[in-house]
Amino acid sequence: MKKEIHPKYKDCTIICACGEVIHTRSTKDNIRVDICSKCHPFFTGKQKFIDSAGRVEKFRKKYNKNK
User: How far apart are CA 54 and CA 67, in angstroms?
Assistant: First the structure.
């Protein structure tokens, strides 16, 4: 392996919007995520609607589908 061409691999903290904190290793110091295995509907069995950046409202406005 060539020296000095690879990024530094260091300890990383991943923080979810639900408050879950995961410690791992990465090239970044901190990573913020919107959803993790503790709050994802597939793992929890609960249905949860996530609207990122107002996409539903944008669709309704574009196609005039207001209810």
Answer: 16
Asked if residue 23 lies in contact with residue 9, where contact means CB atoms within 8 angstroms, the answer is: no
56, part of any domain: yes
Query: pLDDT class for 50, splitting at 50, 70, 90?
Result: low
| Contact yes or no for 26/9 (Cβ under 8 A) | yes
Q: Is the pLDDT of residue 31 over 60?
A: yes
pLDDT exceeds 70 at position 66:
no
Pairing of strands 30-33, 21-26: unpaired
Q: Residue 47 contacts by C-beta under 8 Å, 6 or more apart in sequence? A: 41
Higher pLDDT, 37 or 6: 6
Domain that holds residue 57: 10-63
Count the domains in the chain.
Answer: 1
